[in-house]
Amino acid sequence: MDRRSFMRGAAVVGSGVLAGGAAAGCSSSRPHSDGESEGIASRPAKSAHGGGPPDWYVLAGSLHGTLLRPGDIGYPAAGQLYNAVYAPDAAAIALCASPSDVQRCLGFAREHNVEVAARSGGHSYGGYSSCPGLVINVSDMNGVSVGGTSAHQAAASGQEIVTIGAGTKLIDIYSQLAARSLLLPGGSCPTVGIAGLALGGGIGVFSRAYGLTCDQIATIEIVTADGVLRRCGPNEDEDLYWGCRGGGGGNFGVVTSFGFRTHPIPEEITLFTLEWPWGAAETVLDAWLRWIPSAPDALWANCQLYSSGVVGGGLLKVTGVFVGSVAACSAALNPLTSAVGTAPTYRFVGPEDYVTATMIEAGAKGSRWPSAQHPCSHRSLRNRRTSADHSRSRPSVRSSLLCQPCRRRCPVPAEASCSTATAG
Fold it and tell me: In what order do the strands lie in the sheet with 92-95?
């Protein structure tokens, strides 16, 4: 049963919170003195101390990874969240190198009544990946490997299953899977950690076509509040498995790795941008809100309102990604433009390869053209192919560049073919 079917047919039942949190960093690791195996544990790792005030030196000595305290070199960088509003305030940051490190951290926190938070990429807008107590940072537990789950499970789903460490960044997942012609629908920001994204649902530009990131979860390895490392799936600890598929990071424990179902990269991907003047804002927004629910699942779009700071100034843009051909994408956009009633002042609908499209949607930057030589005033440029559906007068050129954040294609001298610009 998939998530959509489950939500249609079942009432949402509240689940008890087993472990708090969300927390920080990155560092080197060191060998563990007892030579403990890194395999799945059926029981909690022994704690480092027998109660009383926390002895951080004892915890540090028990870990494969590194424990950072305020004043240590590396603490400010490890504790800083993506949202700089939140200053590092953790009593300690554990840069975990293995599931047993996570087990020891939870055991230590339980015995000493220390608040914990789990951190993968540190992108929590609310600052939930930090706390005044112990931050359990899994960012060093990263990596992508194909074939990490049983062959019969992969055959049953008809999809390749990959094992991904909880601390792996999206940019690394996308690039490594693309080398195998595989796609995992995820978010757009390249430095987001997979754990926070998947456990919270995971919305991105391919979500309508393939589902949320949490829909792709085949298995989960998680350390629960009792310190046990559990492997969860549809037929093993299934309640915990379902709870983690969108139930939020840190609510049921600290995840150490995932098994994800992947999809073949589609043969065709189309990007599009439509623009209208500010005066059409009411009409365009109303039309977009009515159009998007019935748009094909292959299409993802947003509606952006840009103010110029002057009354009546600014513009609206509808941009997005379509899994399919330029012609099919154009047909899917026609109901929107018809509902608006006035033609967009700018229209681009053009093909792109998967990797470049993903980088563009991630806001990745880079061009071999020095900004002073480029006809666009924006400094962040991307190579683009000539569109099959690009309306607005333009020079005859062999290629164009996509400027971030304006997403317009700017003319490039004819000698600058697509092969001469970098994908960043």
Answer: 66-68, 92-95, 134-137, 116-119
Identify which of 355, 210, 336 has the alpha carbon closest to the alpha carbon of residue 273: 336
Q: What's the whole-model pTM score?
A: 0.75
pLDDT, one tens digit per residue, over 321-357 is 999 999 999 999 999 999 999 999 999 999 999 999 9
Q: What percent of the chain has pLDDT over 90?
A: 58
Residues whose CB falls within 8 Å of the CB of residue 304, separated by 6 or more in sequence, listed in order: 316, 317, 318, 319
Which CATH number characterizes residue 214's domain?
A: 3.30.465.10
Query: Cβ contacts of residue 156 below 8 Å, gap of 6+?
Result: none
- Using DSSP, state whether 243 is helix, strand or coil: helix
The domain spanning residue 36 has which CATH number?
Answer: 3.30.43.10
Task: Count Cα neighbours of 78 within 13 Å in the Cβ-side half-sphere.
Answer: 29
> Where is 177: in which H helix or E strand?
helix 170-178
Residues 224 and 279 both lie in one domain:
no
Compute CA 294 distance to the chain's CA centroid, rounded to the nearest angstrom.
25
